[in-house]
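Aim 2 progress update. The chain analyzed this quarter is reproduced below.
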Amino acid sequence: SYINTSNPQVIWARVTNTDTGCFAITTVTLEVSPLPVITLEDSYRLCVDEFGNPIQNESGESSPPVINTGLSDLDHTFEWFLNGSPLPETTSSIVARAGGTYTVIATETTSGLGCSAEASTTVTVSSPPTTFSAEVISNAFAEDHQIQAEASGLGVYFFQLDDGPLQESGLFTNV
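Predicted structure tokens:
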């Protein structure tokens, strides 16, 4: 076990035949090439309409999302996979047109050592609700008026009454 003190570093190696005592000495050059550092978001969101066509999300970001490794196409090669199946893209970034787990293997090409790194991210498909409703579920003269809102489609929906807080449940009480 040896830890180099500079990069590259020349060290001397000695090999000895334990039966005869004969030995040979040679130099070895240690060169450490860092692994590619892939920078991906933990997850991305693909917003689609009711027909599956990409649309902008509520903050105006583009959809479908671009997954970018942050690495140079000139210094690396890239292999992309969706849910374990190879994709034809070979560049540092791709456009995610489907939901699932995207994995990229980046291989450094400038040193000739071919060091590789792998990273994965998840793309979640989401849409505005395809159906939604809201109705008063309490009696007309009840002390506590309640509204039940419902929504369905691709994604997880939150509910909000006027400027109140967002909530996971569609039930609003004390209205």
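The two ends are 71 Å apart (CA to CA). Residues 161 and 172 are 8 Å apart (CA to CA). These observations will guide the mutagenesis experiments scheduled for the next reporting period.
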